[in-house]
Description:
There is one protein chain. 41% of the residues lie in helices and 16% in strands. By secondary structure, the protein is of the alpha/beta class. The protein has a domain at 2-180 and 217-240: NAD(P)-binding Rossmann-like Domain (Rossmann fold, 3-Layer(aba) Sandwich), CATH 3.40.50.720. Helix 1 (11-23) links the parallel strand 1 and strand 2 (28-33). Helix 2 packs parallel to helix 4 (93-112). The structure holds nicotinamide-adenine-dinucleotide and 2'deoxy-thymidine-5'-diphospho-alpha-D-glucose (DAU). The site of 2'deoxy-thymidine-5'-diphospho-alpha-D-glucose (DAU) has 18 residues, from helix 6 and strand 8.
Amino acid sequence: MKILVTGACGFIGSNFIHYLLDSHPEDNYTIVDKLTYAGDIHNLDDIKEKLDIRIADITDEKTMEELFYKKDFDIVVNMAAETHVDRSFIDEEPFFRTNVLGTTNLIKLAKKYHVRRFVQISTDEVYGDLALDSDYRYKETDRLAPSNPYSISKAMADLLCLSLSKGSELELIITRSTNNYGPYQYPEKLIPLAIDRLLSDKKIPVYGDGRNMRDWIYVLDNVRAIDLLMRKGTPGIYNIAYGHPISNLELLTDLLRSFDKDESYITFVKDRKVHDLRYALDVSKIESLGFDAKITLKEGLKKTVDWYKAHRSYLEVKKDRAYNDYLKKVYEE
Length: 333
Ligand code: NAD
Ligand code: DAU
């Protein structure tokens, strides 16, 4: 099969491509990535000979059309996106350009060039948040109520995919997963940022009171789920989660323990402008296909900490002037 993966130099994308080459080396993989600050071509250094790599922007209609025309893809997996909520408050424009217009461009081309299946990688954030004491879990049929420019752009992309594929032969799968963590994640997201700070003996900035809850899934579990859906899922929307939402403070306490450090390494900082309280998903639909997340949070955190310790240079290259200026904007230290 001929498979296009966009955003493959990012966090989930590079883990996905490594997994695909291991599990299905017989397929033919093309990747497209614009290499924004979050994309790193070196994430694919060990496998680059096995890929057709295109450095390009998914919003570039002409370049994308030439690619679809030439390659005759069977499956397109769209992971390319602007992904960091804090950045979306500073400047929402790239979020709407890539996440909405870029996705629209790809789905129209997928229809025009008779791609069989289009997999749109979405997020649990499109449902909006829940009260901290709620035990509700969002279902795929629930209404969308996103709250920040990032999640609004992702919800718009989901709705456009649903609308534009309707009545066509294109099989659409939308995945909505909870927070991922693991190797190759840019250190602006909570877990790699916290690991980076602890490795440098610095305090971790916690927004607000730290009671906000997330349901952390190890990236390889999410990648396995996407692969399963891409090959065997009936068209539709699928939630993906680990299934155990915990507060940011609980998560960080576990992490601190693995560094033999205590809570004095936590510093409370100004809260996010709009900070979703709790995400939680009903995953019975994907479970009915035989999927469940295998890696416990304890195992996943250990693997992640070990990976960053063994790849200190990955964190160092990210800390250029632009990164430090960005952090200054977000945190009042
Ligand atoms: P990431 O920020 O690490 O990587 C995004 C990749 O997309 C980068 O390589 C970047 O260069 C590329 N990209 C950005 N704009 C592009 C454009 N216009 N054209 C081509 N490439 C472009 O993101 P991630 O965390 O790996 O997320 C991947 C997908 O999964 C996103 O769609 C995101 O919304 C979704 N998602 C992420 C999480 C998470 O916790 N990380 C959870 C749920 C869903
Ligand atoms: O839920 C899925 C989403 O998870 C994805 O769609 C997004 O692309 C991804 O960025 C992530 O969004 P979050 O905003 O939940 O992730 P982040 O790592 O930025 O923050 C996790 C929690 O930690 C959140 O409650 C905010 C808090 N936080 C974050 C940072 C970076 C802090 O307290 N301090 C921090 O320094």
